[in-house]
């Protein structure tokens, strides 16, 4: 390959056209009806009447009242085993007062079979909506297709909801009835008084309410402390309840071991550092704080750029982890910087956003141990948004990348046979990151923190988030199997973030302390680090994570194979905070795992931003993923099973591989990268609206002359979605994503007109038949399984002949459905949805220049050697 010494090329905006997806034959099997529809309908009608009568009777015996609450009944609709409910029929949205679907969960019935349960709030006087539909079903029960049968045939049982019915985390995690715990309460946003009503109810029943409120469009999230018994009557008093979940606590961190001759190293390195100026981009370390007086950090981090989520916390690093991340976020590989001799010209700076509270003091003899159970936890979505707001207020115009290496573990085991695993589902924390990434802001209203209000001029943000780590007590020889069953932790499942896993090149015990004599590394060079988590255990409706992997160190096994540890020689050198007063200050320590990988990824993102200051965050994310390649060890795993389904499973382990700064920022004469940033309008009045056609400046003649020579095409599409995190089925109007985008490229054997007709119904003339799909020569590495996968980032690689690629110079970007389409009143399509498209061509082993003719064609000055 030629030297990568050329800038990437930016191509003009695409041509927009009206869009309608091509019609497809539906082969969904018909739903088997109940054996006796009359008996079925009669039972459901009786269920509805009994639920309504019981609710009235219960309310007569309750002496707690809350002003402004609407009287009504929470009702559970349960499906037959293995059947999904027709959720849109349970959420009619007709009239000023109507039933409303609040939450959906999957569980097991009494026989152990998987069923779907939907909880609906039915205001008094509106049960008639369901009764009328059941009556119409009964009146036409003798017909081949009775009225409302697609919905009613699916319902096995209707019953009154209990507090357990609103619990959308796994049933086995529902709190013990006698235990006083913190609940994450999701409230329906109706009139802005939902939190006030909850506080009134809490005061009347002796419960505590958290100080933070987090807002997501139709939902407000707040923490509540109390017992099941205290909360039980809320279903008969409050109409605001939507869901109950378990709060997520972040992982604790410990400092790593010492380094040697640290002071001398520090002094030598200081002489070689040229810090970036204050106008440069920054990595904001979202963690435990950063020790800004560290000699290697202080020229790149001002004390005024160190912010805290809670003004009562100290601004300095009280755990040590944030300072460890800061060194890697500033230098990338600190060890390489120390070992080198050249001048280090930094292109970015540091900031700190502290979201972890300081350690709690030890309990005194007088303190009751039970007090620790009721101490107020943090709603970490709110804490994160709050800390970031202070950072942006201090430096509103600075370009920055956020590095978040704090995660919360999934405390769950899905029910046996469950189709929809809990792993990968959005949480309040992950949805906060998605909303912040797409450009939402933080506001203060009525003396309380309210988050994620939309702005007229959104400010998208790039987050690098660690995938989370396999705990030490789970390390094992077969580390790939362990990583595949250890799911990516919260909030790294967020759609809009760049999720970072860890691999390792550290495979030697040279330099290990004496106590590790005879030990050997677990992972081979270039393999996934034994500590890295994956999304193999995620449900198929959730994004593929991690996106990329970076160095995260290795694990060693004892000679007997009975012990595992992470000796310092298998970790990364980084900066250390003096967190223990009076102890000798050592400037270096070692660290490892996905947190270390995340800090290095953030450094790379900031370096790309410094080279291309005007690029969108969506584009920076795309370039990092687009630059990634699998190592030899990873490719060996792909070679074991080359079926596309197996490849996608491995993609959930490795992401797109290891990114490279040079590939992310520079092209070569024989390796051309094109960048396009566009804005598409996905929907209009509940229908598809727009498709974009990119006429690519293709080096067609040069490629054609290469004939059958093998070449590689790579396409990456990146965009940010607006989240809708309420657990109401996550399909159609309840989709988590506001919209989706996909790409397709012209095939070698079809014309541009036929390509447009193949993918766009609007391109067909009246009564014109859609052309037969052209044969797709060459091979997409993942194909439609990845290109159509959930998420807001899609990347694939095509391998074929140069002559074939010469004919593929037209690419389309088009929308797929989301909650914007199904909720026309809240559709923001008219404002436009941004996307970034990266297209690259590589001609390995061919002595050709494909960069210069394309640069000349689009008007980029080219230096010609004479």
UniProtKB/TrEMBL annotation:
<dbReference type="GO" id="GO:0004252">
    <property type="term" value="F:serine-type endopeptidase activity"/>
</dbReference>
<feature type="region of interest" description="Disordered">
    <location>
        <begin position="1"/>
        <end position="39"/>
    </location>
</feature>
<protein>
    <recommendedName>
        <fullName>Peptidase S8/S53 domain-containing protein</fullName>
    </recommendedName>
</protein>
<feature type="domain" description="Peptidase S8/S53">
    <location>
        <begin position="280"/>
        <end position="657"/>
    </location>
</feature>
<dbReference type="Pfam" id="PF00082">
    <property type="entry name" value="Peptidase_S8"/>
</dbReference>
<feature type="region of interest" description="Disordered">
    <location>
        <begin position="350"/>
        <end position="377"/>
    </location>
</feature>
<feature type="compositionally biased region" description="Basic and acidic residues">
    <location>
        <begin position="17"/>
        <end position="27"/>
    </location>
</feature>
<dbReference type="InterPro" id="IPR036852">
    <property type="entry name" value="Peptidase_S8/S53_dom_sf"/>
</dbReference>
<dbReference type="InterPro" id="IPR034074">
    <property type="entry name" value="Y4bN_pept_dom"/>
</dbReference>
<keyword id="KW-0645">Protease</keyword>
<keyword id="KW-0720">Serine protease</keyword>
<dbReference type="InterPro" id="IPR000209">
    <property type="entry name" value="Peptidase_S8/S53_dom"/>
</dbReference>
<dbReference type="GO" id="GO:0006508">
    <property type="term" value="P:proteolysis"/>
</dbReference>
<feature type="compositionally biased region" description="Acidic residues">
    <location>
        <begin position="366"/>
        <end position="376"/>
    </location>
</feature>
<keyword id="KW-0614">Plasmid</keyword>
<keyword id="KW-0378">Hydrolase</keyword>
<dbReference type="InterPro" id="IPR015500">
    <property type="entry name" value="Peptidase_S8_subtilisin-rel"/>
</dbReference>
């Amino acid at each position: 390959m030629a030297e990568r010494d050329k800038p990437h090329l930016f191509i003009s905006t695409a041509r927009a056209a009206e869009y309608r997806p091509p019609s497809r034959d539906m082969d969904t099997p018909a739903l088997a009806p109940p054996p006796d529809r009359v008996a079925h309908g009669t039972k459901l009608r009786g269920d509805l009447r009994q639920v309504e009568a019981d609710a009235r009777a219960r309310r007569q015996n309750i002496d707690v009242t809350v002003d402004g609450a609407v009287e009504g009944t929470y009702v559970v609709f349960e499906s037959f085993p293995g059947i999904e409910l027709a959720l849109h029929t349970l959420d009619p949205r007709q009239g000023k007062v109507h039933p409303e679907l609040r939450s959906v969960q999957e569980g097991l019935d009494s026989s152990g079979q998987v069923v779907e349960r939907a909880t609906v709030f039915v205001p008094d006087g509106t049960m008639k909506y369901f009764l009328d539909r059941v009556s119409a079903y009964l009146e036409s029960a003798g017909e081949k297709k009775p009225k409302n049968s697609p919905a009613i045939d699916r319902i096995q049982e209707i019953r009154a909801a209990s507090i357990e019915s609103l619990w959308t985390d796994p049933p086995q995690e529902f709190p013990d009835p006698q235990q006083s715990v913190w609940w994450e309460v999701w409230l329906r946003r109706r009139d802005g008084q939902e939190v006030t009503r909850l506080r009134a109810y809490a005061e009347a029943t002796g419960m505590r309410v958290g100080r933070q409120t987090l807002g997501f469009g139709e939902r407000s999230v707040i923490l509540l402390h109390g017992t099941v018994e205290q909360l039980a009557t809320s279903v008969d008093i409050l109409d605001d309840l939507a869901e109950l979940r378990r709060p997520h606590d972040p992982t604790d961190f410990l400092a790593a071991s010492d380094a040697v001759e640290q002071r001398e190293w520090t002094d030598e390195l200081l002489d070689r550092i040229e810090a970036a100026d204050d106008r440069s981009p920054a990595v904001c370390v979202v963690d435990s704080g950063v020790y800004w007086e560290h000699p290697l950090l202080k020229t790149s981090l001002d004390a005024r750029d160190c912010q805290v989520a809670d003004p009562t916390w100290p601004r300095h690093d009280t755990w040590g982890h944030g300072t460890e991340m800061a060194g890697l976020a500033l230098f990338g590989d600190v060890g390489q910087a120390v070992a080198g001799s050249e001048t280090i010209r930094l292109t970015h700076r540091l900031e700190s956003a502290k979201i972890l509270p300081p350690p709690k003091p030890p309990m005194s003899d007088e303190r009751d141990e039970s007090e620790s159970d009721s101490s107020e936890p943090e709603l970490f979505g709110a804490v994160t948004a709050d800390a970031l707001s202070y950072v942006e207020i201090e430096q509103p115009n600075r370009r920055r990348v956020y590095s978040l290496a704090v995660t919360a573990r999934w405390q769950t085991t899905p029910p046996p046979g469950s189709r929809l695993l809990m792993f990968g589902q959005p949480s309040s924390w992950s949805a906060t990151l998605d909303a912040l990434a797409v450009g939402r802001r933080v506001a203060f209203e009525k003396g309380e923190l309210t988050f994620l209000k939309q702005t007229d001029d959104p400010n998208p943000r790039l987050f690098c988030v660690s995938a989370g780590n396999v705990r030490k007590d789970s390390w094992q020889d077969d580390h790939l199997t362990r990583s595949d069953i250890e799911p990516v932790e919260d909030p790294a499942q967020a759609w809009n973030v760049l999720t970072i896993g860890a691999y390792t090149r550290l495979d030697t015990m040279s330099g290990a302390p004496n106590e590790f004599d005879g030990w050997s590394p677990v992972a081979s060079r270039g393999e996934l680090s034994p500590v890295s988590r994956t999304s193999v255990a995620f449900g198929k409706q959730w994004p593929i994570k991690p996106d990329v992997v970076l160095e995260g160190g290795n694990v060693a096994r004892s000679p007997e194979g009975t012990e595992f540890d992470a000796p310092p020689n298998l970790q990364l050198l980084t900066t250390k905070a003096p967190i223990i007063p009076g102890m000798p200050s050592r400037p270096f320590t070692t660290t490892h795992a996905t947190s270390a990988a995340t800090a290095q990824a953030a450094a790379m993102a900031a370096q790309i931003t410094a080279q291309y200051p005007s690029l969108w965050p969506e584009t920076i994310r795309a370039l990092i993923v687009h630059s990634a390649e699998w190592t030899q060890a990873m490719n060996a795993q792909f070679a074991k099973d080359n079926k596309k389904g197996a490849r996608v499973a491995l993609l959930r382990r490795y992401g797109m591989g290891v990114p490279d700064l040079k590939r992310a920022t520079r092209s070569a004469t024989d390796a051309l990268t094109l960048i396009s940033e566009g804005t598409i309008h996905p929907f209009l009045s509940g229908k598809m609206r727009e498709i974009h056609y990119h006429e690519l400046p293709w080096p067609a003649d040069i490629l054609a002359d290469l004939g059958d020579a093998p070449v590689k095409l790579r396409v990456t599409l990146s965009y940010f979605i607006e989240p809708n995190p309420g657990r109401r089925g996550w399909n159609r109007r309840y989709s988590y994503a506001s919209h989706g985008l996909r790409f397709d490229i012209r095939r070698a054997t079809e014309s541009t007109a036929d390509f447009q007709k193949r993918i766009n119904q609007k391109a067909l003339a009246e009564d014109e038949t859609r052309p037969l799909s052209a044969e797709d020569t060459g091979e997409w590495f993942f194909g439609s399984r990845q290109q159509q996968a959930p998420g807001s980032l899609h990347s694939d690689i095509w391998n074929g002949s140069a002559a074939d690629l010469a004919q593929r110079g037209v690419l389309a970007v088009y929308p797929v459905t989301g909650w914007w389409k199904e909720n026309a009143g809240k559709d923001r399509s008219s404002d436009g949805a941004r996307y970034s498209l990266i297209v690259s061509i590589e001609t390995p082993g061919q002595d050709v220049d494909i960069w210069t003719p394309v640069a000349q064609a689009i008007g980029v000055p080219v230096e010609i050697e004479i």
